[in-house]
Amino acid sequence: MAKGSFSITLQPPPAGEGVDRLSVGRMLIDKRYLGDLEARGQGEMLSAGNPSAGSAAYVAIEHVTGVLGGRKGSFALQHAGTMHGGVNELTINVVPGSGTGELAGIVGQLKLDLVDRTHCYTLDYTLE
Fold it and tell me: Which residues contact 16 (CB under 8 A, 6 or more apart)?
C-alpha cells in the first residue's frame, strides 16, 4: 500500500473542439504525486451534467510515470465518478496490463481524500 498527497492542474482543450455537440466538458490533467508514489500523472477527463446543481459525472484516463515503493516504471489509471443529491461515488482502478518497467504486472485501486484542502491518495496495489 502506498500513501501520500498530490497536486493537480486542469486546463481546457484548444478552442473550437466539440462545436455543435452535446455539451461535454474536457480537461487535460497534470498531477504531481508525493509520498510513497513519487510520480507525474497526465491524462484527459470528460465530464457531463450540472455540477452546480449537484449532479454530474466524469471519466478519465491518467498515465502515471515515476517511482512506487522504490520501483521505477509507469501505469495507467481509469477514473469513473458520479455525483447526485450530494452523494459522490468514485472508482479509480489501475488499468490491467498497463504497468511498465519495474511496475509491470501492477494491479490495484486508488482512493482519494481531501484533508485540510490537500488532495491525498491511498494506492492499494500488488505486483503480479
Answer: none
What whole-number distance in Å separates Cα of residue 39 and Cα of residue 110? 14
Q: What is the pLDDT along the chain (128 residues), one digit of tens a residue?
A: 899 888 888 777 666 555 555 567 889 999 999 999 999 999 999 998 887 788 899 999 999 999 999 999 999 999 999 999 879 999 999 999 999 999 999 999 999 998 898 999 999 999 98
Rg, the chain, Cα only: 15
Grid cell 517511482 — which residue?
Answer: 67
| φ/ψ bin of 89: left (φ > 0), alpha (ψ from -120 to 50), beta (otherwise) | beta
- Judge whether 120 and 113 are in contact, CB under 8 Å: yes
Name every residue whose Cβ is closer than 8 Å to that of residue 20 and which is 6 or more positions away in sequence. Answer: none
- How far is it, in rounded angstroms, from Cα 73 to Cα 126? 14
